[in-house]
């Protein structure tokens, strides 16, 4: 009863215009060893966009899965238009008018647009066959409604990524949905497409749909949402009207403390060169790369997607084979043909694709951490579990990992905690150079700050970091030097001081105009003009 | 102390004994006991040391291969050519016999052919990145095809008497050489999989080959070694089987790959890779042996045994999935 009173308190002061469509109350959901949601409540109103905010692992995805019938809550009630409902399957939720647009929607390349939109609920003729004419007509209507000029009979594979996204939205709207869930819908969209999406959301609002909008981007939330609900550690910590809150207040709710500086100031002594790369080339991905990384330095690599940054890093890590060029570690020539050799030489790589390349789901946390360090935790090839747990504990505790036990399957952790396991795994090898490929992509603001603070700690301890990032604030905030790559080549190199976003973007895009001269003469520059 | 961490994360939530009790292996032991009791009650000849000893010959050769196959399947690969390797190795031993080879040479030839066939499979899979199921279906026909070309409808016979010891000899009382060999092989692979860094890498590869590669595991090398070992075990099985039968026909060990894979899967190894244990496969081998023997005592025709094996394979692949469903867990999101 006490909880109920609290929930009402949180919301009644800002009485919304419309009447409730959906109410969740006292929802609890546990997984083995983890309490994903405890006593969570949520209200959605017609014609209103409610933003769901929270760090990775706060329980947002679990809630979406409960709303769409993929998970069933352990406790609590879901009311739809005042009537209590129970979704045993995803189909039940679908029929109740709840539809979700995910970040990465599953569509079928070989089917037509109309078939994609109506897959599973296509209109039928009396004989039970699919009524193509009606399906194409209705698909046209739905597409028109969202303002998408797409031929319903076109094959999906012939469409661009943005059009595909619109098809996904049309699919979600083809059922007469009352509640639309959007899970980071803008993650894969360009600026212009995002604007179009906003317009679409406005239109849906006007139609009286209740929208649950999940996003990490605050500008987006303030632009489009009317209400907000904040989750932290599986609990509902605040809700209300967007117009009555501000950026800082939301961040505080989200992380439970004020986030001071996202990019912490740090003082690391820059020492001699640790890694020297010269004339490094690959048949197709990059050419004539030369740079130097010094002890205690963070070297940023900026560039557009496809500039060859990840490919270069993977070559340094021994995944792909370069055609020419030399790598020196501490002045000694190093030929690296495999990740195993790279690790032995002290170079490690935290990949961009966490799920596929980073964590090994199915293995417990401690085994993930010790995998590259087995030569140290084994004796004559035999495992020593006590050593493994010791090593795993040492490094995971430094990163403040949150897990039920070290024996827990990594696959059951949230994205942010998986990233912590991956980083712990590499630190346990005691590397000299750590390459971070988009280290904070898709990570919430709290974890981001933690990763950045940790990077500062590492360089202070004498490590060197190469950071590949597409986020300009991160590049500007964290790097000592920045190398910009374009079309597989080094386009420019800058020192941190006096560098601004515009200069970076110009260099990355190769916009005509004179390249600024090297601002710091003391920086060793193996740079030939572009 | 305050520096350590605010949240203490325990090593494990439940003791290893608790998890052992809830494991598939425990269930298998119960099944083995059940089959044993049923056999003992239904046939008066079952509870006889010599008869039981005979029963072990039903599975020891296949089970040796199953041990190596278990590691291969855990690593996400498979070798369907194992029975064909037996045929080729046995044929090669027969040929060597024609050229006057003695027992030591015969053994070496058998092991060498097995190793070479395994190397060929491993080379095709790791060197060219081909899927092992396709490669080994191909080499299955290839290896046995060579045996047929060499032998036609003939058979090699006349193996030396001391060679027969590998398939018919007893180490002590009713304990056959094959049984001892199988126990040693099982011990070797059990230790290799569960107690060494190599075994850990096998699990890592099976769960996520890309992730394993990015963690510094030499994925191709590990897989190649696993194919080598499976080939070697097939060669070893070829020696035992040839010695036991005293002859080589090209149809020797026909369709054994099915039974080997069944043993491995019954033992709790995930057919998609990533999990499983040697003790599980060990008990599964004994169960298969007991069932075959029981059927034999009851005069059940061989074709029924084959039907049983097929149904068992489907059941053990289906059972874990149904088990998870019954417990309300979703296998995939």
Report on the architecture of this protein:
The complex is a heterodimer of chains A (530) and B (333). Chain A has 19 helices and 22 strands. Chain A has 530 residues and is of the alpha/beta class. Among the domains of chain A are: 1-97 and 177-258, 3-Layer(aba) Sandwich (Rossmann fold), CATH 3.40.50; 104-175, no CATH class. Chain A has a six-stranded mixed sheet with strand order 6-7-8-3-9-10, sandwiched between helices. Chain A has a six-stranded mixed sheet with strand order 16-19-20-13-21-22, sandwiched between helices. In chain A, a hairpin with a 2-residue loop joins β21 (481-486) and β22 (489-495). Chain A starts with a helix and ends in a 21-residue tail after the last helix. With 333 residues, chain B is mostly helical. Chain B has a single domain, classed as ABC transporter involved in vitamin B12 uptake, BtuC. Helix content of chain B is 70%, strand content 3%. Chain A binds chain B through residues 33, 65, 70-71, 317, 319, 338-340, 342-343, 349, 351, 356-363, 366-367, 370-372, 374-375, 377-378, 381-383, 389, 393, 396-397, 400-408, 425, and chain B through 4-7, 9-13, 195-201, 203-204, 206-208, 210-218, 274-275, 330, 333. Chain A: InterPro entries: AAA+_ATPase, ABC_carbohydrate_import_ATPase, ABC_transporter-like_ATP-bd, ABC_transporter-like_CS, P-loop_NTPase. Chain A: GO terms for molecular function: ATP binding.
């Amino acid at each position: 009863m006490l909880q109920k009173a609290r929930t009402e308190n949180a919301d009644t002061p800002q009485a919304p215009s419309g009447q409730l469509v959906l109410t969740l109350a006292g929802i609890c959901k546990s997984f083995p060893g983890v309490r994903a949601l405890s006593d969570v409540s949520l209200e959605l109103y017609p014609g209103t966009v409610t933003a769901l905010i929270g760090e990775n692992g706060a329980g947002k995805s679990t809630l979406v899965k409960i709303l769409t019938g993929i998970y069933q809550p352990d406790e609590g009630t879901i009311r739809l238009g005042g009537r209590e409902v129970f979704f045993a399957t995803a189909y039940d939720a679908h029929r109740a008018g709840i539809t979700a647009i995910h970040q990465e929607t599953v569509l079928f390349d070989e089917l037509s647009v109309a078939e994609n939109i109506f897959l599973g609920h296509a209109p039928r003729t009396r004989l039970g066959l699919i009524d193509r004419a009606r399906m194409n007509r209705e698909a046209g209507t739905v597409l028109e409604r969202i303002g998408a000029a797409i031929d319903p009979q076109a094959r999906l594979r012939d469409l661009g990524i943005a059009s595909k996204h619109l098809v996904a939205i049309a699919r979600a709207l083809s059922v007469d949905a009352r509640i639309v869930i959007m899970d980071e819908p803008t993650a894969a969209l360009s600026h212009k497409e995002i604007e179009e999406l906003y317009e679409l959301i406005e239109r849906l609002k006007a139609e009286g749909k209740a929208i649950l909008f999940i996003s990490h981007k605050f500008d987006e939330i303030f632009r489009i949402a009317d209400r907000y609900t904040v989750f932290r550690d599986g609990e509902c910590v605040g809700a209300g009207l967007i117009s009555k809150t501000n950026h800082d207040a939301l961040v505080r709710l989200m992380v439970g403390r004020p986030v001071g500086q996202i990019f912490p100031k740090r003082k690391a002594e820059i020492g001699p060169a640790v890694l020297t790369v010269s004339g490094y080339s690959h048949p197709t991905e990059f050419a004539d790369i030369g740079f130097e990384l010094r002890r205690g330095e963070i070297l940023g690599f900026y560039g557009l997607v496809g500039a060859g940054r990840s490919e270069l890093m993977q070559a340094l890590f021994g995944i792909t084979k370069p055609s020419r060029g030399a790598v020196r570690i501490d002045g000694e020539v190093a030929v690296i043909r495999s990740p195993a050799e790279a690790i032995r030489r002290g170079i490690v790589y935290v990949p961009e694709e966490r799920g596929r390349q980073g964590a090994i789901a199915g293995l417990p946390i401690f085994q993930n951490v010790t995998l590259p360090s087995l030569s140290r935790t084994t004796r004559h090839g035999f495992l020593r579990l006590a050593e493994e747990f010791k090593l795993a504990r040492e490094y995971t505790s430094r990163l403040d990992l949150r897990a039920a036990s070290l024996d827990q399957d990594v696959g059951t952790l949230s994205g942010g905690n998986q990233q912590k396991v991956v980083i712990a795994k590499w630190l346990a090898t005691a590397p000299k150079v750590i390459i971070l490929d988009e280290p904070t992509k898709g990570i919430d603001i709290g974890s981001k700050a933690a990763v950045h603070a940790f990077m500062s700690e590492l360089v202070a301890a004498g490590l060197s970091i190469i950071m590949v990032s597409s986020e300009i604030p991160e590049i500007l905030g964290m790097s000592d030097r920045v190398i910009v790559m374009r079309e597989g080549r080094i386009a420019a190199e800058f020192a941190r001081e006096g560098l601004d976003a515009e200069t970076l973007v110009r260099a990355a895009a190769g916009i005509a105009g004179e390249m600024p001269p090297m601002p710091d003469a003391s920086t060793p520059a193996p740079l030939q003009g572009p | 102390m305050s520096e350590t961490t605010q949240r203490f994360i325990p090593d494990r939530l439940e003791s290893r004994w608790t998890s052992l009790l809830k494991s598939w292996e425990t269930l298998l032991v119960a099944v083995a006991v059940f089959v044993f009791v049923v056999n003992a009650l239904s046939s008066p000849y079952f509870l006889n040391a010599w008869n039981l000893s005979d029963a072990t010959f039903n599975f020891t050769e296949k089970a040796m291969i199953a041990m190596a196959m278990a590691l291969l399947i855990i690593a996400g690969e498979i070798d369907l050519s194992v029975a064909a390797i037996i045929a080729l190795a046995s044929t090669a031993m027969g040929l060597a016999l024609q050229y006057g080879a003695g027992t030591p040479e015969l053994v070496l030839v058998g092991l060498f052919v097995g190793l070479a066939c395994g190397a060929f499979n491993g080379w095709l899979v790791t060197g060219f990145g081909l899927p092992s199921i396709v490669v080994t279906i191909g080499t299955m026909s290839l290896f046995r095809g060579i045996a047929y070309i060499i032998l036609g409808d003939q058979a090699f016979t006349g193996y030396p008497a001391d060679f027969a010891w590998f398939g018919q000899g007893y180490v002590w009382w009713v304990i056959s050489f094959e049984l001892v060999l199988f126990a040693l092989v099982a011990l070797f692979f059990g230790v290799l999989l569960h107690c060494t860094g190599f075994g850990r890498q096998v699990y890592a590869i099976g769960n996520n080959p890309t992730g394993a590669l990015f963690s510094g595991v030499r994925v191709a090398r590990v897989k190649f070694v696993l194919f080598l070992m499976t080939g070697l075990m097939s060669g070893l099985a070829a020696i035992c089987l040839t010695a036991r039968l005293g002859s080589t026909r090209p149809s020797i060990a026909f369709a054994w790959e099915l039974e080997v894979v069944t043993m491995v899967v019954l033992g709790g190894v995930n057919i998609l890779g990533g999990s499983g244990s040697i003790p599980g496969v060990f008990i599964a081998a004994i169960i298969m042996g007991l069932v075959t023997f029981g059927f034999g005592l009851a005069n059940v025709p061989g074709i029924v045994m084959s039907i049983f094996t097929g149904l068992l394979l489907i059941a053990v692949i289906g059972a874990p999935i149904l088990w998870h469903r019954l417990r309300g867990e979703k296998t995939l999101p």
